[in-house]
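Sample intake sheet
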Amino acid sequence: MGKILEKLKSSKVLASDGAWGTLLHDKGLKPGECPESWNLTHPEEVRDVAKQYFDAGADMVETNSFGGSRFKLLHFGLDQKTSEINRRAAELSRSAAGPDRFVLGSVGPTGKILLTEEVTVNELFEAFKEQCMALADGGVDAIVVETMSDLDEACIAVQAARENTSCEVICTMTFEKTVTGEYRTMMGVSPSEMVQAMKETGADILGANCGNGMEGMIAIVQEIRAADKDIPVLIHANAGIPVYRDGKTIFPESPEQMAGFIPALVNSGANIIGGCCGTTPRHIRLISDALKRFR
């Protein structure tokens, strides 16, 4: 059994980190600039993001590698540095974690669509394999395949991590509420369909990220739990549903508001809770404090 699963057996609930892009932009990352390039050009700034979340009470922190596949890096002319960028991402978060907390290697969608034959299954697998192996080499404890909408792509990424690393494997998909009140990904996948496919593919932990604030995640966790009562569930919620105001995208949910939903989320069956877009170390501090009451 992996280290995170072992920790959950004794702690029951754990805190994860918050948004990375929000903090990197505050540090000077320009719109349209490759965030993952900062692993090589601004390593101390990247490490500081991880440190801020650990200092806020996170039990685990991700890596600055969400767009680190060769397909994404190709847009910036950095595809030949894919392994270096991902390995460095892992090393930076690892150096901030110390020996007693966990690092999750972030793996996001490639932006390629299998359905239109824009990419083959083998090409996707090889890209995810390259990224996951580099993250493992850099010292991550788990691979988190996140923000997925296509079940096939998610399964390929999980399989690549499972077959080519010894890391625990997490998968989270992004669900949005339909006009009929159900939750689906952009490709029409339901939380219960994700559960079945991810269990068959070998994910250790699954859940949802982005797309919803904390309140919207409650029903998603309940549907996951209806499909499986035992598998650990990770939730990375946005700081509310984004609104466009004065030329900027604003995430309106305060740290206090997000933390206020923790009891309902845990009672619904969530085991690991953190933040996604718009969340900050202050959000994570209050989420972590709220979770301590359940340990």
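Comment: The chain has one domain: 3-292. The mean pLDDT is 96.
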